[in-house]
User: What shape does this take?
Amino acid sequence: MTSPRLRAALADIPAYQAGKPPTGGRGPAYKLSSNENPFPPPQAVVAAAHDALNSVNRYPDMGVSELHAALANRLGVAPECLASGAGSVAILYQLLQAACAEGDEVVYAWRSFEAYPIAVGLTGARSVRVPVDDDGRHNLPAMAAAVNEATKVVLVCTPNNPTGPAVHRAELLTFLDSVPGSVVIAIDEAYHEFIDDPDAIDALDVARKRDNVVVLRTFSKAYGLAGLRIGYAVAPPPLAEGVRKCALPFGVSSVAQAAALAALGCEEELMKQVESIATERRRVQTALQSQGWRIPDAQGNFVWLPLGEAAGAFAEAAVGSGVSVRPFAGDGVRVSIGEAHANDLFLGVADRWLQQVS
Ligand code: PMP
Assistant: This one.
């Protein structure tokens, strides 16, 4: 009997692990495991999405043209510079498909976003992982040194999920100057809006001036639309076109486009929420430090506890206290910033943990 054959590259690809929902514990249970926005969407966004349901008998607008016009205006770029997809992770897949084939290499920091090894592996390209430093920061000189003839793409995640720090403007510019212009540099800014580090790069600024830089952004985090799946790339027109060519037809639903447009109309309200999440993040970070934790600078909507082998046990302890967090075996635990009470429950777990081990 012969069995159907799949590509050999699939054998080594890990499955994406979604953050676990909360289970067990007494009292309310909270999900701090997927870096979601704890605020429900504004009513105007819900109403726009609801309205769009009336025409779901029709296929969506394939060019996502209304949203691209609004984003072009908002970001000061031409609509040809934009490509949208079902979350920025879809854009990442499309970009890698556009740039990479069997035998190519993609350089990225590690640990970073867990979709990177999967998305790279699916193209048949090889992942070249450059360890983050002891502060959870990208080691950009080492990443530049890892670039060679086979390198097609470098992924830069800022702020880095899951470790937290943002890449600084000066170090990124030096890095860009030291990498050949034929290599695509994808800057993943999924958590851009949460940054308060004054030295952090605003990648859009850079992308406007460089032919090889693509910026990935999303409506999933600051704009609270994770469940609708919509993200986008800002890139020089030839790169944006390449990304659009690799899109699944009609990947952005009409409901998602309507909600994203409405969300742009509610930016003031949404950015206030973002600011309150960032304020909570600072509170959590300061509390952890005074408990005795040494943690990297948190610039997204999450904090990172470098627990090493104890990651799984810590996550179990958290579940027992009513919060689900995200362990990365052997490495650490990422905890999203949620409702103040959820953050307090987490801080309680963190405090008890240190008391136990000390
Ligand atoms: N990039 C990073 C760094 C992320 O953490 C995530 C979501 N966890 C994404 C991209 C993808 O987000 P989405 O597909 O929801 O836009």
Remarks:
- The CA atoms of residues 307 and 332 lie 4 Å apart.
- The longest strand covers residues 151-157.
